[in-house]
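To: structure desk
From: M.T.
Subject: fold request, one chain
Message: Could you run this one when you get a chance? Sequence is below, nothing fancy, just the single chain.
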Amino acid sequence: MSRIIAGRAGGSRLASVKAKNTRPTTDRVKEALFSRLEGYNVLSGADVLDLFAGTGALGLEAASRGARAVTLVDRDRSALEACSRNKRALEASGTDARIDVVNSPAESYVKRSQGPWDLVFVDPPYSMTDAEIAPLLAAMTPGLRDGAVLVVERSARDPEPTWPAGLRRFGHRSYGETALWFAEPED
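Reply: Done. Structure tokens follow.
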């Protein structure tokens, strides 16, 4: 079972998802990711978008660590139920973040919303190809604030995502089967 690692809701357990295409981010990867994000000073007061949210673990971890607002987006019924349960649990722990759970395909939501976001997590099913992810990255780029961080989680066997104009990769880390790619808006 996944949990919130740190912050106001640190130690809280998260409800899991029964969806077949959902693979939770391990606590080890989450801890390394958020250590890095805290180093970038991007969490406090952030507007966060968590696409392909699954349980909402990444967005809710950001909420626990000081994000201002978090939007969890998924289209799978089981994932949405888990996100809603986990949202209620986090709110009960006293977090101040506004948390929204949205039933939508990721690209449709991004095109409709257009941000602005300070931190975006893109954690699609490993079966999703780069050709399917590239248009999503392009659609969200205009909604990123200056200094925003975009994190793409993929299989370590997958190639680097194709970055659209307006985004620049500035980091990459692998943890076993999981690869994290970090990008930011270009000046």
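Reply (cont.): Helices lie at 27-39, 57-64, 77-92, 106-113, 130-140. Let me know if you need anything else for the meeting.
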